[in-house]
């Protein structure tokens, strides 16, 4: 469990940090405390203590100590750079920019440059999460000290925290900060209700602790008998604000809420979670309506745990939470548990983590805008525009393969992305992949996607890119670069014509940079007994013999691409097929654009796979489901791992459309013990 430290003396606190981290010295932190004036030491050390509990690195801790003094204009950034380095100075600049979070509550500041500043602030969160953690820790520290403020100041401060900062901590999965923020705010906003619940909890504390200990003892005895490597059982009382919300949600009084206390079981492996769940349900009667599996279906902020409620000893309701030690760490620290930093600089994380982080920031911003809109019943003044629902609505934020963020306007294409990276990348662009799948150059990029540009050896833009109706380019910057390239090419042509006139010889001039269309291999005319499939359209070519690829078996509605074979026509693959994604450079010129025609066949064979925890009747339930859905099963293979009791099932089905396949996969996941149902991208 996370423990709170209250060291206020700088030397005592630093000694504690040294012992906690097992390090010989923390020179950055010592320099930081010497820079601070006494007025700001308490606040700086208070913020840093909170961040120490979140596992922040030394550079982040030293920046948090400096932050109050920098915010109070008692020190200049140049001084920080001289003493602590540019990296620390940049982190503090980001933290100062984060200080504008409160402005999200007041979207009356509708000037375009103000909104742009707020947008940049939000994006800065993605660059260095430590800046956000500093701001959240500062807010929690100030909440703890808010008891000295006047009641109107307390209410204003608490409302702003509940509207902006607590939702952000929740989105980032930092339960350690979220719960304390909510309880403190609830105490300031509704002091009478807070005191009533707190007093009620205290009056029943001894009886509640005895009961929870009894539950824990019985559960420990049962878990000891089964083959679980290691486990830890703890009991806790729910936070006051969460109790209040439960009373509101169930329209109940305190005396009618029985599951105020909860038992938490921590295990080593995921399979132990379900083993422990089985033990709990075998000991006591389950309350089905109170069961949630956030391990298989995590919350949007990444929270994972199994929640169940049972009729425990004395027929009293008790909640049991089951999770691994790693899940517990993540539930307490959230994003701080995923982002680790090396001493003296940020450790670059992979793009998947940045994408998840960006999405959380943007979802939080939408949540704030939505809640603000609901609360503000007063219409805007005449002559003013309505507050924006989404500060990101007109932008998309995508990632390079190395994890860098590229800011583009809504509707931007892979070509816009390529020219944003570099003119030469745009000129040599011949294709693009999104998350490993090939997309057309007219594809509209979506926020959070990873974009990879496929380039040729020589530059070869197309004049079609300049056609405003073709949809290749959105940004004026990219269009200007293409125009410049063709102007230079036209100037070269004019120079060559003048040279030809002087020589008075008619010769064909070949410009090295012009496009050379690769010759397609000769395809033998198919026997008259075979006809071209009417459900596949070869774009720009006409009717050719086609065949559905056996490796990926595409369905109507899926993005497809053709591969020209030698003597067997065009093989139709899914664009996400592994065989297409790993095609060699010397055969890529055989790829050809295809699309589904208006007429499609009735059925298509599709291979799917199912993973499940083996049980009696599992295969019967699966086949019964297919029978009820009137799905024909062409083939089935099963394999069960004896040690883990995991069943692996592979089936070949006859499917009519992609929508039907998605429906089937979704329903399969609802069959008890099924953990995964999917369709592979191809062999």
Characterise the protein shown here.
With 683 residues, this protein is an alpha+beta fold. The protein is 45% helix and 16% strand. The chain contains 23 helices and 20 strands. The strands form 5 sheets. Strands 1, 2, 3, 4, 5 and 6 form a 6-stranded mixed beta sheet that branches. A 5-stranded mixed beta sheet has the order 12-16-14-15-13, with no helix packed on it. Strands 18-19-17-20 form a 4-stranded antiparallel beta sheet, with helices on one face. β5 and β6 form a beta hairpin. α4 crosses α6 and α18 crosses α20. 32% of the residues are buried. The N terminus is likely disordered.
Q: What is this structure's SSE topology?
A:
Layout: H1 10-21, H2 27-35, H3 38-53, H4 58-71, H5 77-84, H6 86-98, H7 112-127, H8 129-145, H9 151-171, H10 175-189, H11 191-203, H12 205-225, E1 231-237, H13 240-250, E2 261-267, H14 270-283, E3 285-286, E4 292-293, E5 306-311, E6 317-324, H15 325-333, H16 335-338, H17 351-375, E7 395-399, E8 405-409, H18 414-421, H19 423-427, E9 429-434, E10 437-439, E11 451-455, H20 476-503, E12 536-538, E13 546-548, E14 560-564, E15 570-574, H21 578-581, E16 591-596, E17 604-613, H22 618-628, E18 633-641, E19 646-655, H23 658-668, E20 674-678
Helix pairs in contact: 2-4, 3-4, 3-8, 4-6, 5-6, 6-8, 7-8, 7-17, 8-10, 9-10, 9-17, 10-11, 11-13, 18-20
